[in-house]
Amino acid sequence: MKKKQLTAIAMAGVLAAGVLSYGVxxxxxxxxxxxTITIPATLNVADAGWNATSxxxxxxxxxxxxxxxxxxxxxxxxNGWKLKSDGVSDTVGYNLATADGTYNENAxxxxxxxSAAELNEASGTTKAxxxxxxxxxxxxxxNYSDTVTFTAKVxxxxxxxxxxxxxxxxxxxxxSGSGKYKDQNISVTGTGNSVNxxxxxxxxxxxxxxxxxxxxxxxxxxxxxxxxTSDEEQGVNVDNAGDLSSGWTVKGSTLTWSxxxxxxxxxxxxxEQIMVYRISTIKFTVE
Length: 287
Description:
It contains two helices and 27 strands. By secondary structure, the protein is mainly β. Strands 17, 20, 22, 23, 24, 25 and 27 form a seven-stranded antiparallel sheet that branches. Strands 7-1-16-10-13 form a five-stranded mixed sheet. A four-stranded antiparallel sheet has the order 8-15-12-11, with no helix packed on it. The termini are far apart.
């Protein structure tokens, strides 16, 4: 009787969209976006279920990868995530995964993201990789295999942080007239009599007068956008929007800042007053 052999899945890196998965050189603001990726050349399938590899490793040789970027690694299967054998109609499905689990023919293939901090580790960072193979005990005998192609790309490390403005912590900040509140690596500091409490204690609002300000500061990346949204249709009132500090605009019930990414962004108004009532959310885009 011919033996079933699920011998190997070939692994490969590719040049895609101008980005070579084994290293691309660029400079930005004194940082590097060089990287090296190490993947196993083959994955030998020992049995149905979980089959682990040595993992996928990424590093930056100078430990100076751009903190505003991340490395994303995706994978594509030649056979549509199935092992095939010449002359055999049967196929054996498998999932590319980061941990043991149950085979699912509808599962999306794993992907890996490496932050600047992970790439800048002395020896880089290794993340788990393996496959989950379906039960093939009733499949025809054959030498089953597939090829998986990995693509790496440097991307913006943007993330969105949302404050739902109903936390009791805000009351402590607001009631003091000035103070500091921090959540998810973003803090807000008020100066002068810039923050007052509006409505019930489930929401808060603020008013800013000339010489007062609010400053939003990120300790984990640079802020590229802030969107403050009010529950009320006319919840944002500005005496003269043209006097707002640089980058801030008002549209309906939304107050938005966008500009050159910065660790700190201040909101003030020259010689006028701005009032924002019953804020529902404040969303920050951080790079």
